[in-house]
Design goal:
Structural class: alpha+beta
Helix content: 25-40%
Number of strands: 5
Order of helices and strands: HEEHEHEE
Radius of gyration: 18 Å
Number of helices: 3
């Protein structure tokens, strides 16, 4: 589901009025086992108290989204994830309708790459 949503995020960023100021995606996720395949960089949360707070916040989500047989299995620990705008556009953008040219101020709509 994450992989299917990334083209929509890339499309949203190309249309955003301040898209040239957006440098990338950043967040915290507990489902990190395949994130690097999608282009995310993963870093562990080092602060134990903050990690515990995040684990408790993710607990209801993990319980509701898990299969009943797997509720007793340990869940993944939350981690930071990062993806630069360039990686997002290279790997997940679908520019079949329009061609965008990367310029110093960001992406602009154009007729082709020059």
């Amino acid at each position: 589901m994450v992989k299917d949503s990334l083209p929509g995020i890339a499309d949203f960023l190309t249309k955003h009025p301040k898209q040239h100021q957006i440098k990338g995606l950043i967040g915290i996720i507990s489902l990190n086992f395949r994130s690097n395949r999608l282009g995310f960089e993963i870093y562990p949360i080092k602060n134990k108290i903050y990690k515990l707070i995040k684990m408790s916040a993710f607990l209801p989500i993990n319980i509701l989204s898990s299969v009943p047989d797997s509720r007793n299995k340990p869940s993944h620990e939350p981690v930071y994830f990062f993806m630069s705008r360039d990686v997002l556009f290279k790997r997940h953008a679908n520019f079949s309708r329009k061609i965008y040219v990367l310029e110093e101020n960001g992406l602009i709509e154009g007729d082709g790459i020059t």
